[in-house]
Specification:
This protein has two helices and no strands. It has one domain (1-93). It has helices at residues 2-47, 65-92. The longest helix has 46 residues, at 2-47. The radius of gyration is 21 Å and the shape is flat. The chain crosses the membrane at residues 22-46, 67-91.
Length: 95
C-alpha cells in the first residue's frame, strides 16, 4: 500500500516543486531584470550626468556582468531607501 501512495504522490510533489521553482524564477526575472535595472539605470544616469551605463534602458542583456550588477544593486538600494523614507514619513505622521 505504501508503494501505491509513493506512486501517486511522487508526481504531485515533483509537479509542485517545479511550479514553485518556476514562480521563483519569474519573480527574480521581474524584480532584478526589469524593476531593479530600470530604477538603477535612471539613478545611475542622473548621478553620472548621463555617462553610466553606456547601454540603453532596455539593454540589460547587452550589459556586462559588473555593469548589470552595479546598476541592479543601485536600483535595489534606491527602492530600499525610498521604502525606508516612506515608512519614516508614515510613522512620524507627516505623510
Amino acid at each position: 500500500m505504501d508503494d501505491l501512495g509513493d506512486y501517486l504522490l511522487r508526481p504531485l510533489v515533483k509537479g509542485l516543486y517545479l511550479l514553485v521553482r518556476l514562480a521563483l524564477w519569474l519573480v527574480f526575472e521581474l524584480l532584478v531584470e526589469v524593476i531593479a535595472w530600470w530604477i538603477g539605470w535612471c539613478v545611475c544616469r542622473v548621478a553620472s550626468l548621463n555617462a553610466f551605463p553606456r547601454e540603453r534602458i532596455g539593454e540589460y542583456d547587452r550589459a556586462s556582468r559588473p555593469v548589470a550588477l552595479a546598476v541592479c544593486v543601485t536600483g535595489m538600494l534606491a527602492l530600499l531607501v525610498l521604502g525606508a523614507a516612506l515608512a519614516w514619513a508614515a510613522a512620524s505622521g507627516t505623510g
